[in-house]
Amino acid sequence: MQNQSAMGGSGIAPEELDEWYESLEDILHRYGPERLRALLVSLQERAYSRGVMLPFTANTPYINTIHHSKQVRFPGNREMERRIKSIV
User: Fold this and answer.
1) What is the tens place of the pLDDT at every residue in 21-41?
2) pLDDT score of 1
3) Which of 5, 40, 42, 43 has its CA 20 to 30 A from that of 56?
4) Res 59: pLDDT
5) Domains of the chain: which residue ranges?
6) Helix (H, G, I), strand (E, B), or coil: what is residue 6?
7) Cα–Cα distance between 64 and 72 in angstroms, integer?
8) How far is residue 44's CA from residue 48's CA, in Å, rounded to a whole number?
9) Cα→Cα distances 26→8, 10, 46, 78, 86, Å
10) pTM above 0.70, yes or no
């Protein structure tokens, strides 16, 4: 068994990771991003059902559709709000 430093921070041997990455790329190229997404979601659900807890991520697929040049200015007085926040 390899030691932790030889396997990198993840605890997985680089050669093994390369094989997983190659498989992931193959699925992406053969079947497209939707199929890969479905596979990853399925794997995540399977891991969860087996008691493997993954770190929570608050990232969402949100994309701001309003161009920054069309966004309205921040309402209110930012300096006043900053001062109030620093007091609280």
Assistant:
1) 999 999 999 999 999 999 999
2) 46
3) 5
4) 76
5) 1-57
6) helix
7) 14
8) 6
9) 24, 22, 21, 50, 52
10) no
Q: What is the DSSP letter of 69?
A: G
Looking at per-residue confidence, does 9 or 25 come out higher?
A: 25
Residue 8: partners with Cβ closer than 8 Å, 6 or more residues away: 14, 17
Distance CA 5, CA 30 (A): 34
| Tokens describing residue 77 | 């007085």
DSSP label of 37: H
Report which residue type is found at 48.
Y
Residue 75 sits at φ, ψ, to 5 deg, of: -75, 150
Report the C-alpha gap between 43 and 52 in whole angstroms: 11
